[in-house]
Amino acid sequence: MFDVPSPAEFAIRATVVAVMLLIAFPIHEFSHALAAYRLGDGTAKLMGRLTLDPRAHFDPTGGVLLAITVLFAGFGLGWAKPTPYNPMNLRGGRWGEAIVSAAGPISNLVLAIAAAIPLRYIYATNMSIPLIAEFLDFFVFINLVRRSTGRRSCLRS
User: Fold this and answer.
1) Which range of residues forms the domain containing residue 79?
2) Catalytic residue among 9, 29, 97, 134, which?
3) How much is the pLDDT for 1?
4) 28/33 Cα distance (integer angstroms)
5) Is 9 an annotated catalytic residue?
6) Is residue 2 part of a domain?
7) Quick check: helix, strand or coil at residue 153?
8) DSSP state of 148
9) Tell me, what DSSP letter sits at residue 39?
10) Which of 61, 2, 51 is nearest to 29 (CA)?
11) Spatial separation of the C-alpha atoms in residues 104 and 27, rounded to whole Å
């Protein structure tokens, strides 16, 4: 189940963990917060979560679990703090909730595509930069395969 990666593989995985914690998780949670805000709910903004600052979205347990699973198991299992929103404030009824819920996974898809474009170029031109290619490949994989826990903090009135 757990493997001991080579030093190069360990460095790639550690970089992916850092990028996930510093870029992907904040973008994912910010996307939820922005969607809720644009649909009329200011809960996330009032709680300081309508930001790309990783500190606002970092969950210690989810971050440590992500680091352990990526570094030693080769897959990512972790989470950021769930973005709070009040579904009673959203315009659009159930569609509003669906939009807020879908915003995070859509941001993961966009990040995966953004990493896949240079990866495709590297493979198409047979460039010899294996560390970057492996990093991009793993980053695409993590963004597409990592599952959201589905936890949302709903503040009901």
Assistant:
1) 7-154
2) 29
3) 54
4) 9
5) no
6) no
7) strand
8) P
9) T
10) 51
11) 8
Write the pLDDT tens digit of every residue in 54-64.
Answer: 999 999 999 88
Neighbours of 65 (CB within 10 A): 15
Residue 49 to residue 102: CA distance in whole angstroms: 17
Structural domain includes residue 1: no
The domain tally of the chain equals 1
Domain assignment present for residue 150? The answer is: yes
Give the residue ranges of DSSP H helices in the chain: 7-19, 25-38, 43-46, 54-57, 60-73, 94-124, 130-145
How does the average pLDDT of the chain come out, rounded?
Answer: 84
The model's pLDDT over 106-143, given as tens digits with 9 standing for 90+, comes to 999 999 999 999 988 888 888 878 778 888 887 888 77
Evaluate whether residue 76 is within a structural domain.
yes
CA dist 72 and 47 (Å) reads 34
